[in-house]
Structures are given as structure tokens and as C-alpha cells.
Design brief:
4 copies of one chain form a homotetramer.
Chain A: H1 2-11, H2 28-40, E1 45-48, H3 65-98, E2 113-118, H4 132-152, E3 157-164, H5 170-178, H6 180-188, H7 203-211, E4 219-222
Parallel strand pairs in A: 1-2, 2-3, 3-4
């Protein structure tokens, strides 16, 4: 983590801090917000990004019932509960700066606080049987993101999401090399190449959501068009 | 509960058993399935109906962070985890009867096992700020219902849902008498009268979902059309 | 058509009339409504069912631009314009009976007029490149069906839809025997068997939508679960 | 139009041409594409933006049936047919540049052709009874936009949309001053202020959709969060 911090510090112009926290711990949200305020004096942007997917690679009839509970709660705490707590803890701070920041010459907010959820295609549709717990938690996260949009706008804080598709990072590469049939099904439904994207593909959407002071409550799918599940049979 | 059992027994032709279970307990699903098998020898229909909504009637900035966790987990366990466990525990039994039941003369399943989720409009949109935890859990439940549809169809078990709107039962009556402004907003968006329905309004949909052996993975909104949030200004 | 009429007359108990109309003609809606009123004195149920899909089996770059216009207008008139005209022409009659029909002992409508749209999965997602014009028209039809729901409820007329999946009728059989690859892709995503349904599979949903006096503005997918486009890799 | 051209020329660095075309004429698409190619040699970006909404400010029972046909066809040709023709005519040119443009060092497209639809909230839900024809046409346009996404990606052409909410331009101002009740209903459901936006609020989204070479098939609602139709009762 320290090496990431050094890289970011060298590449950018500002100050970078790293704080190791278990987001499933009750105190994480307040710890993160306190550290940010201590170092920077204010919070402007929150990206809810942490969390690790757990897959069920067995038939449901062979998977112990209590494991469904364990997996579902784990994913729900990571993807739905923790971001709500972090977003609200941060919003209390952000509201001080943004709630009365005023409007520019054309009547749009002069500036806004920005909360971004990194969701997933699984937030929009359950996709696959190994993702039961993950998809349910991400769909719950989408619901809370919409609720927060409705509540925090009055403080000039916007809440939006990205829903990335399939990335060509180490974890997925390993998974799809084990299951080339799953990979082949994905390949068929990405209109734009590549089928599996470099994770930097999400950067423009995040920059946009930070910069636009009126967009609110949207989900931007970043997947080359995969989410449409379109079939092209004649235009080949 | 015994009086309900007696009423149902008198009104119907079959045998009725009641079993008091805390659905948030790990053992509930298996207890329910075991009792049903012991009494009836088979399970044909499961309706995931239990659960109590918890509302947040405070501003989020005044609501303690740990309470978000408490409320969200409570609702998620009731509405998302417990139905998955009950559905799968029951499906293991149902599959024995239905998986190889065969097809009728036009090639449709001769019969099917039937799992029904009683969702809510909140599963489709978060609706209101007091329903953050409830809406998130119901949306998660919708995701799992879709996953179960995809998985259990191979055993000739169908999974569908109803999404009832606003009922004129005791709880809601009390709530909306406290908040007539909320009630007025609902009233404006129900194309068909009544605005608040008798709970028996869900019966035809449940009967239909039980009887149709091919409908699978659908959500039927039972709300007079409220879910469209349509505005009628000129046709008055 | 006369043989269909005779069959229906023999099978049922009521009177059956057949009226040959080109639904793309401006006068069709009024002709149909007038004939129905003349013979039966009232209209209770309308099913918007007519229309023939036109597919584009060429690449879009080779398909003349004016043909897009021709195909799109043809499909739009059949699936979106004609049903609006028929529904409203019929609703003017239905309103006389239903608008003030009153409520039963639990406050639900004593009876309701019923309009049903026979949509298609293509109304919910564009699905395939040969269906550009068809999907657009069906999606437009869904929009108008929702608008009519919002407007006609005040007269105790309900408007709902079914969205059937793939049927094993003569037309599709011929098409999919030409394109077994398209058929194979469909086969993979129907959780419940059969993959291609007998058209009688839509009957229970239509009967339900006619009978339930409170369901309004819903779309019931009748496709064994195909619309979820779910992938089952581990539960096999 | 000439004054707009002069303003744009002075403000920007490039060359601006204006071409007056009736987009409902069959020849418009080819005229526009030919003029662009003649002047610029290539087409990189297409924004489908033209069209005028027609509202039905009468009850449907008093509105002549043939007028539904007239209004619906008018809106469908403007919003659904014309953009398909323009997009495909332009894509034939764009494909020459983009289809084989290659990939950058992380495997993302080096550059892409970009087609943008200016939809509307009415493309996602029918909203109001005066918008029957407009909403149907915009929903059809959404369907075709998704189809084009699926088809044109192979040529490295992306197709996306914005769905602006309520703008404070001359037309709407006049309309909402006539119907302050409609305006009040909108005001209640915009989490972020202002309720009615300056039209320049769409610029960042358009710039983003032009710049991001992987986002494909998305709809970005630009409305301060109105599309969620959220109710805030307790966080006030």
C-alpha cells in the first residue's frame, strides 16, 4: 500500500494518504472520514470501491444452507452496508461546504459534493449462478445509491454509479482461464472490442461524474455494450 | 395462530398446519420443510411472505451509523437470506416430484413446483427516504428470486413474484393517518380506484402463478397501476 | 376465418363473429367497435393481437435507407398506432358500463373493462439485429400501453400486457430451421423446458388479466424465464 | 441560422457549416452526410437532436382517432426513423476511418466514431397524458439506439444517449406558466436544485460520451435526479 501511495504522489500534484481499514468493521466509516478531515480539512469526493466477490462454484443443492447466509451477509455488508455508512459519514462533512455553495450565472450548482458507487453489471441483472450472493448485494447497493441520491441532493451532494463489465485483471484472468465456456459467452455479447477491458477504462466515467455538477442518480455501464446482451446474426 | 388455522381448516377442504418459527434463525428453513414433509409428504408451493418492515423516521444525519447497519442487516436477513434458504430447502424436496414429471400433449410441463416471492413496489424503486433498509433488502430479494428462477427451472420448479402496492390494513392505516401528506402523494398516482387496496387483492395473482406451468421469473405488480407513477393532467 | 368462427362457436357457449379488417386502415378501429356493439351491445375485453413481424435479413449497410423508413413505419402502424386507436374507440364504449360500476364489499372494483396488449420480448429489449423495426414498434407499443393505463383507470378500464417468448408455431419453426445458431442461443437461456412453447401457453395469463379487477399496467413475460438471460454454469 | 453559424465560428477554432433540412424528408440523411463529407472529408460525431414535441392537450375521448395516427406518426418519423437513417448513412462513412483504427497500449480502441441520441425522460417512462405520442416515439428511439449499439460496435462506432430532464428554455417556460400544477409536481421530485435546468447542463455528458472510447449503449439522465421519482419526507 505504501508503494501505491508513493506512485500516486509522484504522478499527481497533491498529497496522498493511505489508511488500512476493514470496511466490515463498524468503526471504518468514521475512521476514514476522520483521517481525511484531519489531513485535508474537507471531503469532496467519495468512491465506494472496496469489496471482494465471493462465488458459489457448487450446485445449490450441495451447498450448505448456512453457507448461503454466510456468503450473502458477507457480500451485503461489504457492498451495501459499508458504503451507506461511509457515504453518510462523509456527507455530514461535505454538507458543511456544499449545502449553501450557491449557483453559477446559468443557475447550476457552483460546485457539488460527489459520491460514486462502483457497482457492477451484477447490480442490474443476476447474470450467473455462481454470483447469487454478489448480485443480491450489488442490487441492494444500487437501491441504497438511489435512496442517497434522493436524500443528499438537498445538500448539493450528488450520488452516481458506474457499472463496469469484465476487466482483464489478474483475478478474472485466472477465473476465465478455468472456465473458457463462460468467457466465450461473454465474448459473444460485447459489441465493441475488447471483450475484457483494461481497468483504466473506468477512468473517464469517474472523471465525468466528478466534474458534472447536475448529473445525479445515474448508472453508467462501462462494458463496451455488453449489458444490452444483443445478438448480431446478420450484420457480420 | 391457532384461530387462523381453525378458520382455514373450516373454509377449505384440506389439512392446515401452523408452525411458529423465527425466520431469522438458521434452523427455520429446515424446520419448516421437515414439518411440511412430515405432515403432507411433499411440498408443491412455497410463498415467501414473512417479514416486518422497519422504517427510518429520522434524518440520516441524526440517525446513528451503527443503526443503519442494524436496520439493513435485519431487513436483509428477513427478506433476502431467509427466503433463499427456505426456497432451496423446499426445492430439494420438490425436485424429487417435479424434475421428471414430464410434459403434456402440447409439450408444456405436466405440472411444476411453484415458489412465490411476496416482494413490494420497494423492490423495484426505493420510493421514500424512510424505506432505505427495506427497499435495499427487497431489491436484493428480487435479485435472488431471478437467480433461483435461472437455477431451479431445470427441476421444473418455477419462481415468480408479486409486488403489492399499498394495502388498507391496520399497520398502513395507522402510518398514513400520521402522515396524510404521504398518503396524498400515493392517492395521486393510482389510476384505478381504490388507492389503498384490500389485501385480498393479491389472491388472483397468487392463484395464477400457482396454476400457470410456464410463467417463470416474472414480477406482477398488484397496485392498480401505481408503479407507473403516471401523471394525468388533461384527461380529467 | 369462417372455419375458425365455427370451431370457436362449437367449443364455447357464446356467439362468435368474425370481421376481416386491415388494422392499418384508418377506419378499422371504428369498424371493429361498431360491429362488436351491433352484435353484442357492449365491449368488455379487447386483445390487441394483430400484426406481422418484418425482419431485416441483410446488413444495415446494404439495406436501402428508404427501406428502414418503410419497415419501421409499417411495424409502428401495426403494433403501436392501430392498438391505440382500437383501445380508445373501445374504451369510449366500455366507459359507459364500467366507469360507475362501483365497488364490492372489500372496496375493489365490482368489475372492470379489460384491454390486453400482446407484446413480445422485443418490447423489453431489442434482442437481435433482424428485429430493429419490430423491436422499436413493440417498445413504442409498451409506452402507449402504460399511457393508456394511466388514463383509462379513471373509467374502471384496466390495461395490461403479455410478452410471450418463442413459440413453436409454423412461422418460427421455418425461421429457426434456417438459422439453427439463433435457435441454439435461445435454447441456452430458457430455464424451464420447453424452449419453444406451444402458443396455448399464453392462455392462463390472458385469463388472469381478464379476471383480476385490480391488476393494472403490468407486463407478464410468458417465456419459461428466457427474459432473464440467465447463465447456469455450475448447477448442471 | 446564419447568426448561429457565425457565433459558433467565432467561439470555436474550426469550421462550421449550416444545412437546412427537413429531417422527415427521405433525402435528409443523405444530404446531411454528403454535405459533411464534402466540407470536412470525414464524419466523427453525430448527435441526433432535431425534433419538436407535439402534446395532446385534450381528453383522449374528445381527440379524433385519426389525430392519434397523425401525431404518433409525426413523432415517430422525427424521433425514431430519421435518426436511424442519419446514423446509418453516417456510419457507412465513419466505418472507413474507424473500423480498423486499432487499439492503444492497454488494448482499448485508439479512437471511435460516436453517435449520440438526445432522448428524454419520456423515453424511459411515459410520464404524462399529453405526451402519449412523444413518449412512444422516444421509447422507440431508445430501442433503435440499443440496436445500433449492437450492430455498429464491430466498426468501432459507439452509440449512446442522454436523457435530459426539464429545461428552463422558452418553450417549457411558456408551457409551465400555463400549467403551474405540472410544474409543482416536477419541482417536488428533483433532489438537486435547480428544478429546471439551463440547457448547457447537457454539455458535460455530451463531451464525456464523445471522449470515452469504451462506453457504449448507455443512457445518461441529466435531470438532477428527477428520474428516480423519489420522495423525501423525513430528511427535510
Amino acid at each position: 500500500m505504501e508503494s501505491v501511495r508513493q506512485t500516486l504522489t509522484l504522478e499527481g500534484e497533491g498529497k496522498v494518504i493511505c489508511l488500512k481499514q476493514d470496511i466490515t468493521a463498524e468503526s471504518a466509516a468514521e475512521n476514514i472520514v476522520e483521517a481525511a478531515v484531519r489531513e485535508f480539512g474537507m471531503i469532496d469526493i467519495v468512491v465506494n470501491n472496496a469489496g471482494i466477490a465471493r462465488r458459489i462454484e457448487e450446485t445449490y443443492f450441495n451447498f450448505p444452507l448456512e453457507k448461503f447466509s454466510e456468503y450473502m451477509l458477507d457480500q451485503f455488508i461489504q457492498f451495501a452496508v459499508a458504503p451507506v455508512q461511509l457515504s453518510i459519514a462523509a456527507a455530514k462533512v461535505m454538507a458543511k461546504k456544499y449545502a449553501n455553495i450557491g449557483y453559477n450565472e446559468v443557475g447550476l450548482p457552483r460546485d457539488t459534493g460527489c459520491i460514486i458507487y462502483n457497482l457492477s453489471q451484477a447490480a442490474l441483472q443476476p447474470i450467473r449462478d455462481d454470483l447469487l450472493a454478489y448480485s443480491a448485494a450489488k442490487r441492494a447497493a444500487l437501491s441504497t445509491m438511489e435512496t442517497l441520491t434522493g436524500v443528499l441532493g438537498q445538500h448539493n451532494i450528488r450520488v452516481n454509479a458506474i457499472a463496469p463489465g469484465y476487466a482483464n485483471t489478474a483475478g478474472p484472468k485466472k477465473f476465465y482461464s478455468r472456465f473458457p465456456n463462460i468467457r466465450a459467452d461473454i465474448d459473444k455479447h460485447v459489441p465493441l472490442k475488447p471483450n475484457f477491458m483494461d481497468p483504466s477504462a473506468v477512468v473517464p466515467a469517474v472523471q465525468y461524474l466528478v466534474a458534472d455538477n447536475y448529473v445525479n442518480g445515474v448508472v453508467i455501464e462501462i462494458d463496451g455494450g455488453w449489458h444490452l446482451r444483443f445478438n448480431r446474426y446478420f450484420n457480420v
